[in-house]
User: What shape does this take?
Amino acid sequence: MDFREQLKSHTVMGGGGLKLYIEETGNPHGIPLLFIHGFNQCRLAWTKQTHSDLARDFRIITMDNRGHGLSEKPSDAYSDSKLWADDIRAAIEELYLDNPVLIGWSYAGIIIFDYLRCYGEEKIRGVNLVGARSRIGTPEAIEETGKEYLTLRSQLFSNDITESIAALDRFIKLCIYHELRPEDLYFFLGFNAIVPPYVRQGLMNRSIANDDLLPILKKPFLVTHGVQDQIILLRHAQYNASKLANVKTSFYEEAGHNPFWENSERFNRELRDFVNSL
Assistant: This one.
């Protein structure tokens, strides 16, 4: 049986009763992998994982974060860490995920730490941070962010469609070290464009450090990061790794912010090895 063809869709009630759209594929008897996307993205960013041999062995869950993809997009539901934590809790509990591994890209690092702060580590197996943040809105976080990306922020918040699409085009290209194929650029641009500017601004208005949380976490972490990342600089990944007690690192010399896309074969292999080691 080709488990990649066994796609199921779910709607779960996240924090504050917000409806979250989730897709499931893979081996229903395998270890669950909960993939959580980054700022302005959606579940489709993980296509090279859901359509891979990982689906033969693992139960793969990809969720659209609040404000993204096919999940609900209220105007003001992005500042409260408890709401984000409840979203992850809802996915785990309503889909009966037995000690999942959390895989979080970019902004999803913040979301995962929201969950861990509110609910602890008891119901997860481990975490793969992929080009991921642990802090945002602080002076240190700004220093760890690519300068060209910082200059795009006001344009990403714009309600002018021409300005917004131009900024999204540049943002997507900044995420990738090697030039994207046109079909891949438009694939990403499509689901980036459906996120309302007020959602983008809501995410970026948060200020969180998590400096106190990282050292007390005990579950295994894998920190994956592209050396050429121009969104979240490598030194932030190195900071995260230095603070976590039980951590492995994997740095990709020839990748930017999307190592799971640019070198999916290596990423999938290393994720498999990490999961099997837990």
